[in-house]
Design goal:
single chain, alpha/beta, Nucleotidyltransferase, domain 5, five-stranded mixed sheet, 10 helices, 10 strands, 42% helix, binds 5'-O-[(R)-(carboxyoxy)(hydroxy)phosphoryl]adenosine, binds zinc ion
């Protein structure tokens, strides 16, 4: 079956085609609205919704062309039902349900985070179940135990800011624009390690939760004194990475698991990857990442998650629905 995936939860319009027959991603395309929102220093929800409306049809045509298929070949549709911006989600839901009605095919709402945490299964090197997933995006920081499709257990999560949010806010403090995560991590690579030391929030909390909101205050204090931006960036990244990595190791040990999956935008961070790979070699576990282009929001992970659910008979019968706030 050919499954069309639609992602419109925030500021990326993602569309993809996944073929369940040979388990292959046929095509995917993403339009990022970053340039449009940049002027405002953050996502403007109404502008995001309007832009999604304009992008969905051309992107669908594009993936059909890339994949060498026709509209009538689509056998099922998955769309991001939540969490995310209500208006943006409604655009994807309306489009998916209208198209599903016209084609007479099933339409399934997908949890955005389920998409992220299954996305490493689209790589050539795929993890086996069970595994621990670290979800680190602009809106979420969670550790999940994943025993199979639809079988997720929350191990720990952030008490305040998400890791990506901390990156973006700190980048703003350093004048790096929006969204600053990638720019901040590039700047940090030029910084001297150990020049400044920031706190390691909740490192010794004894649980698997996180807290990142205090870090930006610590960075703010540093920037008030004489400082070298690259060294501050380095101190920030070193702190976030140390805490994330330590909690990943604890999660694996506590659950007796040896496979770790890293998903979400912050998973693209080079320092995080290098540190996880080093710990993996030391402790004898395996780390799996999505393809770099599938780390941030995309339609491929939604098509894939929908396909997995449809195949496992795990369809949700929510009808036309969006859930701006929704726990996995
Ligand atoms: O998963 P994602 O595309 O969107 C959400 O669902 O939030 O993640 C976006 C987040 C942003 O906060 C962005 O700054 C961060 O991921 N990000 C990074 C890097 N690339 C993206 N953070 C740190 N290092 C990176 N290389
Ligand atoms: Zn996301």
């Amino acid at each position: 079956m050919l499954v069309l995936g639609i992602e419109t939860s925030c500021d990326e319009t993602g569309v993809a085609l996944y073929e369940t027959g040979d388990g292959r991603l046929l095509a995917h395309a993403v339009h990022s609205q970053v340039a449009m929102h940049e002027a405002y220093g953050g996502v403007v929800p109404e502008l995001a919704s309007r832009d999604h409306i304009q992008r969905l049809v051309p992107l669908t045509r594009l993936v059909l062309k890339k994949g060498g298929r026709r509209m009538e070949d689509i056998g099922g549709i998955g769309y991001t039902e939540g969490p995310g911006l209500a208006g943006a989600l409604l655009v994807g839901a309306s489009y998916a349900h209208a198209l599903g009605e016209a084609l007479g095919v099933p339409v399934l709402g997908v949890h955005h985070l389920e998409g992220h945490l299954l996305s490493p299964l689209l790589s050539a090197r795929r993890p086996q179940f069970p595994f621990v997933a670290l979800l680190v995006s602009g809106g979420h920081t969670q550790l999940m135990r994943v025993d199979g499709v639809g079988r997720y257990g929350l191990l720990g999560e952030t008490q305040d800011d998400a890791a990506g949010e901390a990156f973006d806010k700190t980048a703003k403090l350093l004048g790096l624009g929006y969204p600053g995560g990638p720019a901040l991590s590039a700047l940090a690579e030029k910084g001297r390690p150990g020049r400044y030391r920031l706190p390691r929030p909740m490192l010794d909390s004894g649980d698997l939760d996180f807290s990142f909101s205090g870090l930006k205050t610590a960075v703010l204090m540093l920037t008030k004194k004489e400082h070298e931006p690259a060294d501050v960036a380095r101190a920030f990244v070193d702190s976030v990475v140390e805490v994330l990595v330590a909690k990943c190791v604890h999660s694996l040990e506590r659950n007796g698991l040896t496979r770790l999956v890293v998903a979400g935008g912050v998973g693209a961070n080079k320092q995080l990857r290098a540190s996880l790979d080093a710990e993996a070699a030391k402790h004898g576990f395996d780390v799996f990442y999505p393809e770099p282009e599938l780390c941030t929001d995309n339609g491929a992970m939604i098509a894939f998650a929908a396909a997995q659910r449809m195949q496992a008979g795990l369809g949700r019968e929510h009808g036309f629905s969006v859930k701006p706030r929704w726990a996995l």
